[in-house]
Amino acid sequence: MRCLRLMNFEKRREVGQLKLYFSSRAKCVPSDLIEPITEFASPACSHVDASFAPNENIKLPSKHLDPKDFAFHPYSALVYTDFVSPKQASALENDILKRMRRKRFEKGHWDAVITNYKEIELPIYNSPTDEMAWNNIHESHPVEMTHEKANQEQVNPMFQLSKDSISAIERVRRHIVQSHFFPSKEQQDNEKILKYLNCHAIHLKKDGMLTAHVDSIKFSGDIVAGLSLKSASIMRLRPASASELARRDGEEEHGDTLDQTEAGSKAMIGCGHVDLYLPPYSLYILSGVSRYFYTHEILPSGATFQLQDESNQEDSSIKVEREDRISVIFRDEK
Asked: For residue 63, what is the domain's CATH number?
């Protein structure tokens, strides 16, 4: 009983710490009705290696950057393991690959961030609770309804996804709402709730590269999250250079504001990093400093991750031989 009480105390303390962190950074006002560790999952501390994380004492190559902005916060980068079921993951993978069938692998992206990939948008309703609406409307449109008939009846494109795929996507969206955003009663009445951009699905080939970058803030908001399918991978977060922060903000770069040594770089090498281990079915969420001040990238095949808090094992390192990777990316509106 004593052990159980201690465990419950630790979980309550973790809930309180997470709530304090997210409520101080989210667009919304804190609410005692919502707890960040939801019915869906708790974060897996073992899958985030912050051994070399930057702190307030890091020496930055640019005098125009404040070290305090780059101090890593453990709740700004979270990994939830086994977030979706194998059935949901398989449905999503099949739906995505069907829609990508006629697309060719792209050699490069316009901003040189990603190579050897396919990408599609997955249109879906904006509300995080629209799975209920989907179920109601789906009952009035039988499963055997053809795509042609669906188009004639102006059924939303989301209905072209399977029910299991919709369930997986809405599971992620509801979890983000419950764990990262705390709307007040007044905001709920005014319908000022979190709204999402359409999901993007990315098929990255085994030899493809996703290099260091910070997502632009011109169109997306506080959260960057990804559901990992197929191959495991390692994501690395590193402090972003002044030039990359300018790109993040959509600003023109000015030579007199950037140090020459990092004028063309995206991440500041040698200033620390944080690694996330992303096995299949896992969900990562970046917010705060990890979303705005760190680049993120996928390490190439052969990279090694050291599982945390695994002292009872002789060797807790994992060498990831990356295969083709499919991910579904979630972003909120600005």
From this structure: 2.60.120.590
